[in-house]
Amino acid sequence: MSPQLDVNAISKHFLARAKQKASVKMAVVHPCSRDSLQGAIDAANAGLIEPIFIAPTAKITAIAAEAGIDLSIYTLIDVPHSHAAAAKAAELAREGKVEALMKGSLHTDELMSAVLKRENGLRSERRISHVFVMATANYHKTFFITDAAININPDLLTKRDIVQNAIDLFAAISENESIPKVAILAAVESVNPEMQSTVDAACLCKMADRGQIQGGILDGPLAYDNAISKEAADIKGIKSLVAGDADIFLAPDLESANMLAKQLILLADASSAGVIVGAKVPIVLTSRSDDAESRLASCAIVALMADAKKRGLLTFSK
């Protein structure tokens, strides 16, 4: 049985490290709800970000007044609606005036549409993907789940980018040079041509052997019990460096990743931070159900990413 992890200590640890870095200039896109606005203010008060709020002035000032928030000390850019807010945020990122973006109360599709427009120049050679950075008392270390928000049904080459993005994020926010272990999840642990996820898993492992994926140790297909528990893998005779010690869990598709992450949050009291990687600037992707701790942790991750980018450690940001 793995020793229990102090989940609160993990969040505090990320925050403590991020506070040692320079604050990040961040465009906060259409924070026209109390929670999305308060989350950005909390991150600013913690010294993690320097927010630039992009929203209809009348709407955001009314929300701030109701919440007792003083916006006078912050930069506020007036736009007519959420689409315009997303476009303006992408423009600021393209011009190098902000280092990161934060989703407010607009739809994810609205924000990502602006980010993905080729003329905005925010795309890299990689596919963009989402990573949950998570911790639960039932697992012995922090771990990633990907992709839970962007790529609905990724093909093999998209999965390659999703894995590489997660590996690079791991390297960017880790304190040591340990090599992350990647569990490629499926319903079974053997390759079955009728289950595309198992075929993709085998291909990804061979791609890592050939240097098409770098910086990680991959194994799969692995059913979730084998990936999370070495004892379960041993019972099935699976010899694996990854089983029971994975740092990154690659799900077969968005639906399975999203359900897995939310089950852990709601049923296993997992803490989480959500970021989008693979673009030339990191993006905090918040949900309306995220608590204050999750929003702060997401900003802390982005602060560590921004610092890593300055040191040339984020390859997809070049």
Task: Describe the overall structure.
- The longest helix is centred in the last third of the chain and has 19 residues, at 292-310.
- The chain has 318 residues and is an alpha/beta fold.
- The protein has an eleven-stranded mixed β-sheet, with helices on both faces.
- 42% of the residues lie in helices and 17% in strands.
- It is globular, with a radius of gyration of 19 Å.
- It has one domain (7-180, 247-317): Isopropylmalate Dehydrogenase (3-Layer(aba) Sandwich).
Number of domains: 1
Structural class: alpha/beta
**Spatial strand arrangement across the major sheet:** 3-2-1-4-11-10-5-6-9-7-8
Which of globular, elongated, flat, extended, rod-shaped describes the shape? globular
- Rg over alpha carbons: 19 Å
Termini separation: 42 Å
Could you report the average pLDDT, rounded to the nearest whole number? 90
CATH homologous superfamily grouping = Isopropylmalate Dehydrogenase
Can you give the helix content as a percent range?
40-55%
> Secondary-structure element order, as H and E?
HEHEHEHEHEEHEHEHHEHEEH
Looking at the structure, the CATH topology is Isopropylmalate Dehydrogenase
Largest sheet: 11 strands, mixed
Low-confidence residue ranges: none
CATH C-level: Alpha Beta
**Strand portion:** 15-25%
